[in-house]
Specification:
The chain is mainly alpha-helical. The chain is 81% helix and 0% strand. It has one domain. It contains six helices and no strands. Helix 1 packs antiparallel against helix 2, helix 2 runs antiparallel to helix 3 and helix 3 packs antiparallel against helix 4.
Length: 210
């Protein structure tokens, strides 16, 4: 861990608080990702009975459940990012300027990407919604690149392999959503370890024998 004087005036306590905010946000995003995955699966399985000419009620019921799950997942994503994770990254960037790029990419890509994608999904009944979803998807890719850089920088400083694996999974998560879920879980665990290390009491300095 860097010395307090190299932490942009926030000190080690400020870095620990940044880690805590990021960890709380990661937990919310884990739950949000699960809800989103359930919603996507409900859309897929709900379409099957409709495609094989089964009762429309079954299709409508699954679609209603899918919409609820997706709305909850998106709402939790926006809340977790805006109130916890992004403020934590911003606090970390204020303490350590090496995180400025990650902060910018995550704030622009993840939060606004999720918001734009939600708006596009609502407008999918009209053609413009498709283009809005595409823009949202591009922004989300930018956000995942920011997550990759963040986890990689944390690995360089903390020397925890969990950060490195999380960084790789965030890149894979651009194409496979399950990988991003595992990446959030690993990031959550790794941040907890970093908090414990930062709060561990410093052993007393032994006097040097003459």
């Amino acid at each position: 861990m860097s010395q307090p004087q190299a932490l942009g005036g926030l000190g080690a306590a400020g870095v620990v608080e940044a880690y805590r905010l990021m960890r709380d946000g990661a937990l919310i995003l884990i739950i949000a990702t699960i809800f989103t995955a359930v919603g996507v699966m409900a859309v897929f399985f709900g379409s099957l009975p409709f495609m094989v000419h089964r009762p429309l009620e079954a299709f409508a019921g699954m679609m209603a459940g899918a919409i609820v799950a997706l709305v909850i997942g998106t709402a939790l994503t926006l809340y977790g990012l805006w109130s916890k994770f992004i403020p934590g990254v911003e606090r970390l960037a204020a303490a350590k300027p090496g995180y400025e790029t990650s902060k910018t990419l995550i704030r622009i890509g993840l939060f606004w990407g999720a918001l734009v994608t939600l708006i596009g999904a609502i407008l999918m009944l009209v053609i413009v919604g498709i283009f809005i979803v595409v823009i949202g998807a591009i922004l989300l890719i930018v956000g995942y690149v920011g997550l990759f850089l963040l986890a990689l920088k944390l690995y360089e400083e903390e020397k925890s392999a969990l950060y490195l694996v999380a960084a790789i999974l965030f890149i894979i998560g651009i194409f496979v959503s399950l990988a991003s879920l595992v990446g959030w879980i690993l990031l959550y665990v790794a941040l907890g370890e970093s908090i414990r290390r930062a709060q561990a009491p410093t052993p007393p300095t032994q006097p040097v024998p003459l």
